[in-house]
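JOB MANIFEST
job_type = single_chain_structure
chain_count = 1
residues = 503
[input]
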Amino acid sequence: MKSVVVSELEGTLLKSHDVFCYFMLIAFEASGLIRFALLLACWPLIRLLEICGRGDNGLKLAIFVATCGVRFSEIEAVTRAVLPKFYLDDTDMAAWRVFSSCYDNRRRVVATKMPRVMVERFAKEHLRADDVVGSELCINRFGFATGFVEDDFDCIGRKVGELIRVDERRRCLGLARRTRGSVGSLFLPSCQEQCNPPFANYKSIQDDDHRAIRPLPVIFHDGRLAMRPTPAAALLILLWIPIGILLAAIRISVGIILPMWAIPHVAPIFGSRVVVKGTPPPPPSASNSGVLFVCTHRTLMDPVVLSSVLRRRIPAVTYSISRFSEILSPIPTVRLTRIREVDARKIRRQLQKGDLVVCPEGTTCREPFLLRFSALFAELTDRIVPVAMNYRVGFFHATTARGWKAMDPIFFFMNPRPVYEVTFLNQLPVEATCSSGKSPHDVANYVQRILAATLGFECTNFTRKDKYRVLAGNDGIVAARTWNPAKETVDAFRKVVGSFMLH
């Protein structure tokens, strides 16, 4: 068993050796559309430098264009909330199994030529690395990145060598490519044992298969881009954005103007599609109180899509959506306060009038996981119909924790062919509700489990606060303020324009 394992990131732990797309993500999410387009325009020069054997200069150019003048805290936020998902999707599991077979050792090191800040969180939290060695961004005294790195890339090999030589009695396993110019060429000579891609037949996989563990999954993910921004994909995104804005305006206008029963017939004309499974319950009668539809929360569009499927405007419980989103909403909204007694009275009052939609996760989650369900809904009615909601998009995600939430429906409708999947489950039997003596938490957990099983998701105990602490560094609570319609409308227009300039 080896005492130290050092692995190159790009081209080894990651399948691809091309890291350009990660700088495109930094440019788009930390700065905006203009820098995104500028970096894409530099790609031919970066590629030419790589072909001419000046790959380090090309990498320095990508770092400069992506980070120059960007606040360092914003770069950290993107590396925390956006990059891990794309890294994990590109992880070479064979290389990871070799790397993780040394899990019981004292030290696991990841080396990369990318700025350390872009890699460290993913490597330590998901790949379980002890140390990350990479280039260091220069930061000025005002907290902005200058776009330069502190030392030449050769210093990465020296730093790794220092970690290896802490105890010369330890044997070191090096995982890296042998190609000229790779970071592996800087530290492989210091390793007693070397392993190069591909790793499928490496003996440690068989010898230590019982020790191999999977990387920790990414549960919370932010950012607007749904696809990896390779040069070709980035060009396609840039060309699509003007068309997408026009298409989103048309789709939103159709949803506001047309009656709810007509939307399912008109939406496919503009590329939207809703897949319905299960049997929806009938409208409430005069003798019965309304049904409480308990939905998974994927985007702000969940209650709107549900209303279009049922062909009637069903009010939705909301927590902290923007006033601009409420203005655009074609269905009534019931704004809650997060004060349990007050919210319970509001929901009971609404159920006496008719049906109601609630998303007990309290916030959206775009990954295949369900957050913990609030048990309040189970205390208020026994007429509970679980509804499994899911969606598919091509270009843009329709949720955000760090950005402006009013843009969520706009980004959803900017996708060429957004698809929503709505699965109606049977109404909970009386014996599965609080009427039979079950606790509200048991009912909430049961509904969470059956919805997760329907979608093929995993249940978690994470909450809204956990999500915002990971993605935004706060609890996600916005202080209440008095609404001024004229000021809010002007501010909303400015933010829409500003958001398109930013993204």
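[summary]
The longest helix spans residues 231-257.
Residues 205-211, 479-501 have pLDDT under 50 and may be disordered.
exit_status = 0
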